[in-house]
Amino acid sequence: MAIPISDADIPVISSELPLSEAERRESLRQLTMGHWIARADLGYVITTHDDCAAMLRDRRWFSALSLIAESQNYENPEWSKRDRKSILSTEGDDHQRIRRIVSPAFTPKSADRLRPFMRDVMDELLDPVCEAGRSEFVADVCEPYPIPIICELLGAPREDWELFSRLAVDIFRVFNGNLAQDGPKIIAAGEEMDTYMVNLISERRRHPREDLLSDLIAAEEEGDRLSTDELLSMANALLLAGTDTTRNQLGCAVALFAQHPEQFQLLRENPELAPGAVEEVMRYLGAVRGTGRYASEDITYRDVLFPKGTLIFPNFVAANHDNDKFVNPTEFDITRQPGVPHLTFGSGAHFCLGAFLARAELQEAFTVIARRLPDLALDGEISWKPIQNGIWGPESLPISFLKGY
Ligand code: HEM
Q1: How far apart are the first and last CA of the chain?
Q2: Mutate to test the pocket of ligand 1, among 100, 289, 352, 363 (most ligand atoms within 8 A of CB)
Q3: Of 169, 202, 342, 356, which is most buried by a Cβ count within 10 Å?
Q4: Is 315 close to ligand 1, i.e. is its CB under 6 Å away?
């Protein structure tokens, strides 16, 4: 007979966790040692690699993203009108259908197509930095890096990079937990993006090009195509899912390289280590630290009953440091043997659609940075974003270097 989760004897994770990353990781590790689940304020934190992966693969757990407005009691007719189904928050057959249609456009080959462009963007961002000898690396390089790439991916021209950058700032407010204040700005940015994309879509319908938007327009599964509304929702989801993630992950990476100069030296001397370095950075210090799901029905798992509506939070930080899965998990080692995948791209039905693209972006960035800033070092304290942020990384990352090429 399954025990209801509310009666289970499990540890409690306080929301008052230590702020430093290392302390927090250690407290999470100690708290959950011997446990796979812990009680938190809003639901239950899942802490082992196996359980995070198993629960994310179980399609009865639905993405909690669709609950954002409800959980904040946010009511606005304009919001509800625009709240169309996005790949990030749909489930079941609807989700599978969109995923089937768009997946062929997100292959390693389509990511590779953009590699020369990625290198050019990174080179252009580093030119002024190299001359200066020091940099606030988040503002100078990490923040701007993904925008031109998303624009190129969608087929938006260079003169519109500024516009996308501005829209992205407002669209990301959805994760700030304050819809009452931010809702109108998010709606306005969404509408502006839609107007822009409607024009771009009709242009690409007439004149297809070698870009993702043309691929998505042409994508077809047994005669089934994405409607204009679905294309708009997809463009919005890509901006949301593919920008802040990459920039924060790059910030985490450069912070780690500055803190572990011997690992950076290895990468510099062996650029072929870049793919492994990306996986290790994402395991050791992932920019997406977890996700949320709710039970779409009563679910029994490991003899525990989770009533319909129960919220769970698969914790990627804990899973990526699971002693049963990784040898010396607290060691940062870019030569780590490939084996168990980290969970920073998620798992199951919503596994990151842009994973090949993100990997390519980070691999190219690492290689260019190692070549052009070979002796980069910290030039002050790193300050980190609030630990509660769903997408997390350094707020500011001062670096200096003697030689910039
Ligand atoms: C280092 C960078 C990235 C990280 C760490 C990351 C992480 C993730 C994670 C954890 C999920 C699953 C969320 C969940 O299960 O609730 C996800 C989904 C998604 N990601 Fe990424 N992502 C990154 C970059 C990108 C890029 C560059 C794109 C595309 C341009 C992208 C597009 C998407 C999309 C569309 C989904 C939703 C997939 C679905 O629901 O079926 N991501 N990402």
Answers
A1: 66
A2: 352
A3: 342
A4: no
Cβ atoms 239, 170 nearer than 8 A: no
Q: Candidates 3.40.50.970, 3.40.50.300, 1.10.630.10, 1.10.3720.10; correct CATH number of 3-400?
A: 1.10.630.10
Q: Which atom of ligand 1 is the closest one to the Cα of 248? A: 1
The pTM of the full predicted model, rounded to 2 decimals, is 0.94
How far away, in angstroms, is 351 Cα from ligand 1 center?
7
Q: Is 239 in the pocket of ligand 1 (CB under 6 A)?
A: no
Whole-angstrom CA distances from 369 to 75, 158, 252, 286, 401 are: 46, 23, 14, 19, 12
Query: What distance in angstroms lies between residue 354's CA and the mean position of ligand 1's atoms?
Result: 6
Evaluate whether 32 touches 38 at the Cβ level (below 8 Å).
yes
Instruction: Read off the DSSP letter of residue 20.
Output: S
